[in-house]
């Protein structure tokens, strides 16, 4: 088969897109993990409250409680390459904005506190990390992750999409959601 360079480029892009999409479904990660050592268990105690598993109603209550400031929500998994790429951007935003100006919620779909805590073993996240039940992914229509949803200060959804977004684009959306 004689193909043109443009066709080969499009085919390669399509194959890459399928590979990324299949690696980032909203299915929970495997809960199999090694037994944590004493240091990990001590650090785990610090995360106990933050990593309680929330259902859809509890997540919606958390978002509603933030009225008066934008809320950026990300549904993610430790096994999703695009999520791992997006998290540092979200961490920078959580660090950049005062808590009264923006709340960043990282809703983890893995369902395993030790897996999530192990992911953040090098640092304490600036954003709020919450474990959520699988039903939360359905409620947010998160077929693919990372799934980003931005609510403005009045609690209205102003952005809802899956995929990686660079910091500059998210900053522009947050500024608009803040009314700036």
UniProtKB/TrEMBL annotation:
Tagged with keyword Isomerase: yes
PROSITE patterns hit by this protein: THIOREDOXIN_1, THIOREDOXIN_2
Pfam family, one: Thioredoxin_8
Signal peptide: 1-31
Signal in keyword set: yes
SUPFAM superfamilies per record: Thioredoxin-like
A GO molecular function held by the record: isomerase activity
Keywords, alphabetical: Isomerase, Redox-active center, Signal
Matching InterPro entries: Thioredoxin-like_fold (IPR012336), Thioredoxin-like_sf (IPR036249), Thioredoxin_CS (IPR017937), Thioredoxin_domain (IPR013766), Thioredoxin_ResA/DsbE_sf (IPR050553)
Residue ranges constituting the Thioredoxin domain according to the UniProt record: 29-179
PANTHER family associated with the record: CHROMOSOME UNDETERMINED SCAFFOLD_47, WHOLE GENOME SHOTGUN SEQUENCE, THIOL:DISULFIDE INTERCHANGE PROTEIN DSBE
Protein name: Thiol-disulfide isomerase or thioredoxin
Species per Swiss-Prot/TrEMBL record: Paucidesulfovibrio gracilis DSM 16080
Upper classification of the organism: Bacteria, Pseudomonadati, Thermodesulfobacteriota, Desulfovibrionia, Desulfovibrionales
